[in-house]
Amino acid sequence: MEDSRIVIDGTALTCAQVVRAAREDVTVAIAPDGADRARAAWRTAAEVAASQPVYGRTTGVGANRTVDVEWEDSDAHGLRLLRSHAAGAGPLVAPEIVRAMLTVRLNQIAAGGSGVEPGVLRALADVLNLGLLPPVPVYGAIGTGDLTALASTALCLLGERPWRPGPDGAAERGPGYRLRSADALAFISSNAATLGEAALAVADLREMLSASTVVAALSHFAVRGSGEPYAQAVQDACPHPGQQDVAAAMRTLLAFDQPAPMRIQDPYGYRAFPQVHGPALEAAAHAERVVTREINAAAENPLVDVTGRTVWHNGNFHTAYVGLALDSARAALFQTMALAAARLGTLAEPSFTGLAPFLGATEASSGIMILEYVAHSCLADVRRLATPAALGSAVLSRGVEEHAGFSTQSARATTDAVAAYRLGLGCELVAAVRALRMQGRAPSGGPLRSALDLAAGVLDPGVEDRPLDADIAAAADLLPRLARPHP
């Protein structure tokens, strides 16, 4: 049983923990080490700013970096900065993404590089534990800092802006917190919203890719495919790790039943499944490693160096690694989803299933015909969303900030692509289970039999022509359960 408490220490946050903090009823606590690091950085930042210029603390920001803040104006400077930057636009992002953002920013500050007064740790933890949400619009960041989202959060902490309305429609003011003016830029200079969404997206992506292998094995069993493509000798001849993992999983899933194959060679949806799905597994795993590294990094500008008793002005705010990793994962996702759509096509063919066209109740029935249209509609969106966000660029703030990686847009595209993939994969699952039911066949045992039994307990057994939208939704909801190992 999982602990209902997540301890934030600034060094060991995982994407899985971000998912739990964002979607489950958990309590967030702060480790003493994290609080100590934040306190030491805050003291160092104050000492350094008293003796030399520090960006955002003693100067303006962006193109105004050369403008010194007069001491008599220092108390108002930070508040003006927050007000001027809380200017996002468009609809509000999903509550789970906001909670992921708050969790990541809490961990970043506990890493000890921001110099923000450590009391903000308790304030953010209280916000998470009370279920409060700042209003965060969709548009406002391009991968070089979620300034609008975090400025809005800061104004909520200060009591200037209400938290989002709760279930009763009323907006709350929440616990008050006095964010120091000198800490304003340090608080908002972060990619916490982008990284929070990226953590959710890669966790969901890896889950769907794991479920895909199970669904592909059900389709393989339904069309009486050949197991030769998954043989160890084949994989040893071209030993890509992801490909080997996919083939090994297929061997395990199909181990209980080895009927004679119906064809000397199957279509690519089966024969090349390890070679296409393997890269998606590797890309998703790499993306998760990159995101995990980022959410535990003191990627602050300026970076407060407690050991060196100084600050470093730097470019760690640029999340090119994250954006490029997610771009790569979406490209690989499109490739493997194209094979899922192709397998769905084989399940509609009598020559593969021995059943009526489209798995219909009669020769004239439409059966699952519409599932192909739905799957290819989902595939079209995954293809559109696979366009690399990194191909964009921007020149901002009077030319001082002359590059952007658009990791924010890459994270959003990954969220949307995974959602479309999930529905398309659900279509294949509906068809595979229906084919096996109509054939009167089932694996004799093992994890594939467990998966089929699980799906059969959820999906409607009727084969008459009827609306299939509820079937698709039920199959898509089932996929996370199929992703988990079965006995």
From TrEMBL:
<dbReference type="InterPro" id="IPR024083">
    <property type="entry name" value="Fumarase/histidase_N"/>
</dbReference>
<dbReference type="Pfam" id="PF00221">
    <property type="entry name" value="Lyase_aromatic"/>
</dbReference>
<dbReference type="InterPro" id="IPR001106">
    <property type="entry name" value="Aromatic_Lyase"/>
</dbReference>
<dbReference type="GO" id="GO:0016841">
    <property type="term" value="F:ammonia-lyase activity"/>
</dbReference>
<protein>
    <submittedName>
        <fullName>Aromatic amino acid lyase</fullName>
    </submittedName>
</protein>
<dbReference type="InterPro" id="IPR008948">
    <property type="entry name" value="L-Aspartase-like"/>
</dbReference>
<keyword id="KW-0456">Lyase</keyword>
